[in-house]
Amino acid sequence: MHFHKFEKIWLTFGIGALVLFLVILGYGAFYLGTHPQSHGLTIDPQNVEAHEAFKPENLGLTKVDEDRYIVNVVASAFNYDFGVDKEGNAVKHIEIPKGATVLFQVVTPDVIHGFNIAGTNVNMMVEPGYISSMEVEMNQPGEYTLLCNEYCGIGHHMMYTTVEVYE
Amino acid sequence: MKQHGKTHTNVDKEPNLKGTLISVGVLGLFIIISWVAVFAIFLSR
Known about the structure:
The complex is a heterodimer. By secondary structure, chain A is α+β, with helices and mostly antiparallel strands. Chain A has one helix at 5-31; strands spanning 60-65, 68-76, 79-81, 93-97, 100-107, 113-117, 123-126, 132-138, 142-147, 160-166.
């Protein structure tokens, strides 16, 4: 078979790029352990409270170690449930120190919601029946909006809250 | 004995693919630059 010399150039380049991206994908998946935010961890959507992390008293921000936090959230139409504060009022704002490693764990009892902290890499779908989780380092101080970016119904646009990363 | 035209029938004229190479190169560069830019945003956040 005869190839033009230019064809050899772009075929080599194209096949090389394909191989390179497959290697990167394999490295991320098998060596670094990267996975989708919801990767088969299931939960009964009718009874999310049965899971230790989503009992009402365990919702919201919890400090587990120096600079390590867990945020457990139940997302439902049209609210993010972070639990209640000492006075019994619903938590609508969370504050995380700069540089902290935060594990977000989110479930929903009703429909598909989004969980996006705008301007950060925190962005995941929350599907009924699955636990979505993602660990990030919050390195840039500021006030961020946490919002739902999957249309979930009539009140979708009101489904947001704020996350502050302080120095 | 001369074999008229034999060399002409066996060797096809190569098409000129210079323009194609340049357009493929431009497209490839665009894809690479966009990928690197998006990856840089991901890393910086």
